[in-house]
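User: For my dataset I need records formatted as: sequence, then structure tokens, nothing else. Please produce one.
Assistant:
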Amino acid sequence: MIPIKDSRVPRRYPVMRNFIILANIAVFLYLLWQGESVIMAFIDKYAFLGSKLAENPVGNSYTFITYQFIHGGVGHILGNMWYLFVFAPHVESKLGMGRFLFFYLFSGMISCMVQAVAVPAHSIPLVGASGSVAGVLGFYAAMFPGAKILTWVPIGLFGWFVKIPAIAFLLFWFFFQFLLAYLSQTSGVVAGGVAWWAHLGGFVFGLLFGLSIR
């Protein structure tokens, strides 16, 4: 299922959402034009890795933030930025620009810590905005459960558009992530290279934070 738009009109123009999207695109385009050695050095320096943080917690603490702006491919960044584009405007409208940016970045911090605890032996550097975006989804679920999400449901080469209650769409998303996280945990690897537990951690944090200020 692919969300297209929600039924609500945001009260404010989502300036910070657009800034975050542009920042992610800028980093992606910069790396796209670099050689493999530069890309690997960049990831080694700015991606999040629990073991690296444990070696030097203060010196590597910046990776809590920087990893959120690195993506591993076109599909990776498109998926994250599209979900952010659809769901972030109302969250930013509710929190305001400054608090939204703090919440977004903090969701990413929580999500990578959850991943590090859930899969402590994970040796692949963590990159991407998935955990941060998951926090936005959790907050949206808490604040706007009755909103309708216009969704494209693909069937083979075709599909149809349906309006789905936000709470149903997001709970389906959450349980799908949980299933894949469970399968990755039981197999002992991060399935497909995706940090599923980071998604869950970000979503639960966003949900609880949203419920706490309703």
